[in-house]
What we know:
Blueprint: H1 14-36, H2 57-62, H3 71-78, H4 83-89, H5 91-113, H6 117-123, H7 126-147
Helix pairs in contact: 1-5, 3-4, 3-5, 4-5, 5-7
Amino acid sequence: xxxxxxxxxxPINPLLDRLTAVIILACAVGFVMFLANVQPDxxxxxxxxxxxxxxxxxxxxxxxxxxxxxxTTAGAHLVRMQLWQAVNAQPFGTGLGLxxxxxxxxxxxxxxxxxxxxxxxxxxxxxxxxxxGIALLxxxxxxxxxxxxx
Length: 150
């Protein structure tokens, strides 16, 4: 864990620090609850259709996945602790879900321990996170493209 200072030493206004942590935690909990209420599509993609959304246009038009095909399915597997199924459905979606849950867990820890969430956010290597995220997205798309069965 990163060494985090007390809320009084936050690099941003302490009220804004607390508000940021509360919003991130609420989003993480909300997404987990949301995904726990859908069933992962056995195809590995298409779980979003349970919300009344249209099927993926790439699959319909080209018979191949879009870069984010399976993200919702991976998230639905992840909240059920089905890590292998989540990775198999969409590695990027699994990484995104784990990252979001980690941000929420750190926010909860900061709120409970009166530590600065802003301090945590300012210490994150955002450039590396973005580069690795893009690499994971592209690698996942290649994986899905090679293994996709509509």
